[in-house]
Design a protein that fits this description.
By secondary structure, this protein is an alpha/beta fold. It has 5 domains: about 1-110, no CATH class; about 120-200 and about 285-295 and about 315-365, P-loop containing nucleotide triphosphate hydrolases (Rossmann fold); about 205-280, P-loop containing nucleotide triphosphate hydrolases (Rossmann fold, 3-Layer(aba) Sandwich); about 395-595, Rossmann fold; about 600-695, 3-Layer(aba) Sandwich (Rossmann fold), CATH 3.40.50. It has 23 helices and 23 strands. Helix 21 links the parallel strand 20 and strand 21. InterPro entries: AAA+_ATPase, ABC1_TM_dom, ABC1_TM_sf, ABC_transporter-like_ATP-bd, ABC_transporter-like_CS, LpxK, P-loop_NTPase, Type_1_exporter. Keywords: ATP-binding, Kinase, Membrane, Nucleotide-binding, Transferase, Transmembrane, Transmembrane helix.
Length: about 725
């Protein structure tokens, strides 16, 4: 967002390319050096052997060698070439290793913290600074002769200008720095005399930017505890106000939160840090600007949790919310590294000193945000959008982009159209080839290749007819499924058996059969179940199955592409076929003529592993997601996510794509949001980051009224 708002895309690209070019040049130099070493060494060895042979075979140096000694010598000398060449490669390996080892050696050489203390008695929380001075470097003193006392269970607020040493005090109490002068006492014992682990176990720090780890919520709350106490965990979450948002997460306390809690909001991260402090149950609490980065609403929620946390504990509050400072037992005002003023809020206001100036200029309670009452209006998501290339395949893209070169395939298109026409005429002239069902059949299909939204429409029709007292049954081809003959689809049938689209319809709990021969599927359906109407998902060109009502679905954005038949275009049948169907349903619009508009609205978010469902306005995760769409028109799904306020990268795949784990591998921990059709193929991955968005069709009620009339007239 920052890059786009400052129009810095080119600047960042230039930086990236410059770093890339530098890295490339360095690697080229390294490879050039390594590759030159081998031929140079071989050349030198060859020259050396030639010189040796010259003198060994000649009499210039008075050397006389027998034939066998000469052969043995030359062989031994030749064998030296390989180890010499290997020695030349060692330098490159050593240089790489040294570069990588620098940081490791810095860590190994770092001085360990002094831990000579032996006292581990219980700490109650009395704190005393006795003439303490400290500086990060020898030139500037941060704290100078600092003196103050904090009694057990007392809340003390420390305020002051930036750089006055407020956070330094918190760091010194926890012994993050030990090179100070003077003495810091807890319960009249120097902090240097306590065991370091015991001291830090007795102090909990909640700061402005809490560090959260790429792990589950429960392990972040119980961080540092090898054995998690479930009862203690739930109590800490409840008191800190975390239960409310944890319960909405699909895996509850087991939910991963990503690097540094990237999947949580600022308020949720702060509440998690407070829950961690509750779980630790330390007698001393340090709140270091714990709500300064939050909005008003989040601050109010976190403030309630903090009020619970500081009860019956020694608490140090650094530049915190005004109400906490006002209610503090004592306020210390730091100036130039020492306590300039001390007292209660009212005393310091009456004193008319530094605190009053800070109070008037900085510490102002922001008005509570007013909550808007009333129910939020449900928006219709009419997906009218600018079509963008999604790389669905070279030929498919050419069809819908109306590429001129496709006219080269016109002769093949003519042949294909003639065959289609002849095939259909054969069924018209020979009605004996057509099976007529005793129950009415409604065929929902299309005349173009690729997805148009048939399955959502079939789902809508089946549910509406069922609500009106019909007993519908479903048949489909089961595209992509591995089965033989006729298969009855239930909630237990797997995606590998049925293909992806059938898994969506299986959730309706309506009698459902799949078969490449739809007539046979319809017969089996009527043999096993009592139905009074059969709905066929696709099958407009399956003429051997008689039908009472035909519904053609077209994509409103792409319509019929270039209007040509296969292979020059996407059409399975000529455009004139649309004039013969009973209804033309336009998915998304704009409509033409008698077309019926269908819009696809988001219904709910569903977590794939757990099956937990969330309404559209209750999305529990981060709004940055990876968007996956392997459907006929991925842009329709991406546009819908954009309208819902998501920030995402587009990952389009061909229709009916068979996913593998590499397709869903991302380096970050953002949620993966996909279509319901895609989710059916990813259940077995057991990936807790996968969510899908279910959609529902919206069509004017007159359409179902007219459909019902036609069924009753049969």
């Amino acid at each position: 967002l920052e890059i786009k708002s400052f129009n810095a895309e080119k600047y960042e690209k230039d930086r990236f390319f410059a770093a890339n070019a530098s890295n490339k040049n360095q690697n080229l130099k390294l490879e050039a050096t390594s590759n030159l070493a081998t031929p140079i060494i071989q050349l030198l060895v060859s020259i050396s052997l030639s010189i040796v042979a010259y003198f060994a075979l000649g009499s210039q140096l008075g050397i006389e060698l027998s034939a066998e000694d000469f052969v043995a010598f030359i062989t031994a000398a030749g064998l030296m070439a390989k180890p010499i060449r290997q020695l030349s490669n060692i330098n490159a390996v050593i240089q790489k290793g040294l570069a990588a080892a620098v940081e490791i050696f810095d860590q190994l050489d770092a001085k360990e913290e002094d831990d000579e203390g032996e006292i581990d008695t219980n700490i109650t929380g009395n704190i005393k600074f006795d003439d303490v001075s400290f500086s990060y470097n020898s030139k500037e003193s941060v704290l100078a002769n600092l003196n103050f006392d904090i009694h057990q269970n007392e809340t003390v607020a420390i305020v002051g200008k930036s750089g006055s040493g407020k956070s330094t005090i918190a760091n010194l109490i926890s012994r993050f720095y030990s090179d100070y002068s003077g003495d810091i006492l807890i319960d009249d014992v120097s902090i240097l005399d306590y065991q370091l682990s015991h001291l830090r176990k007795s102090i909990s720090i909640v700061n402005q930017s809490p560090t959260l780890f790429n792990d589950t919520i429960e392990k972040n709350i119980a961080y540092g505890d090898s054995e998690i106490d479930d009862q203690k965990l739930k109590e800490a979450a409840e008191i800190s106000g975390c239960t409310e948002f944890i319960s909405r997460l699909p895996e509850g306390f087991k939910s991963e939160i990503g690097d540094d809690g990237v999947l949580l909001s600022g308020g949720q991260r702060q509440r998690l840090a407070i829950a961690r402090a509750f779980y630790k149950d330390s007698p001393i609490i340090i709140l270091d600007e714990a709500t300064s980065a939050l909005d008003n609403e989040s601050e109010l929620i976190v403030q309630e949790a903090i009020e619970q946390l500081i009860n019956n504990r020694t608490t140090i509050v650094i530049a915190h919310r005004l109400t906490t400072i006002e209610n503090a037992d004592k306020i210390l005002v730091l100036d130039n590294g020492s306590v300039a003023e001390s007292g209660t809020h009212s005393e310091l206001i009456d004193h008319d000193g530094i605190y009053k100036g800070l109070y008037q200029n900085k510490f102002h309670d922001s008005e509570d945000s007013q909550k808007k009452s009333g129910k939020s209006a449900r928006h219709e998501y009419l997906p009218t959008f600018t079509e963008e290339p999604t790389q669905q395949g070279y030929l498919i893209d050419a069809w819908y982009n109306k590429s001129f070169w496709l006219y080269i395939l016109a002769p093949l298109t003519f042949v294909f159209s003639a065959l289609v026409k002849a095939r259909r005429n054969s069924y018209i002239k020979n009605p004996d080839k057509v099976w007529i069902s005793p129950k009415p059949i409604v065929v929902v299909g299309n005349i173009s290749m690729g997805g148009t939204g048939k399955t959502p429409l079939v789902k809508f029709i089946a549910m509406e007819l069922q609500n009106r007292g019909f007993k519908p049954g479903l048949v489909s081809r089961g595209y992509g499924g591995k089965y033989s003959g006729t298969l009855e689809v239930t909630s237990e049938t797997t995606y590998k058996q049925t293909g992806d689209e059938a898994q969506i319809l299986a959730k309706l709990n309506i009698p459902f059969f799949i078969d490449k021969n739809r007539s046979r599927a319809a017969k089996k359906l009527q043999e096993k179940h009592e139905v009074d109407v059969i709905i066929s998902d696709d099958g407009l060109q399956h003429y051997s199955m008689g039908r009472d009502i035909e519904i053609a679905v077209i994509d409103g954005a792409r319509r019929l592409g270039n209007g040509l038949a296969f292979p020059a275009g996407p059409l399975r049948e000529p455009k004139s076929r649309l004039s013969e169907v009973d209804f033309i349903v336009n998915n998304g619009g704009p409509t033409e003529g008698d077309e019926i508009l269908m819009t696809l609205s988001p219904a709910k978010f569903i977590h794939l592993n757990s099956g937990k469902e969330y309404s559209i306005d209750k999305w529990p995760m981060h709004n940055q997601v990876h968007a996956i769409a392997g459907v006929g028109n991925p842009n329709r799904f991406f546009d819908l996510l954009l309208r819902l306020g998501f920030e995402f990268d587009k990952n389009p795949f061909p229709d009916h794509h068979k996913y593998n784990k590499r397709d869903l591998y991302f380096l970050d921990h953002l949620p993966i949001l996909m279509t319901e059709k895609d989710a059916a193929k990813c259940k077995h991955f057991n990936n807790s980051k996968i969510w899908y968005l279910s959609i529902e069709s919206k069509i004017e009620s007159q359409f179902i009224d007219r459909l019902e009339e036609k069924l009753n007239d049969r």
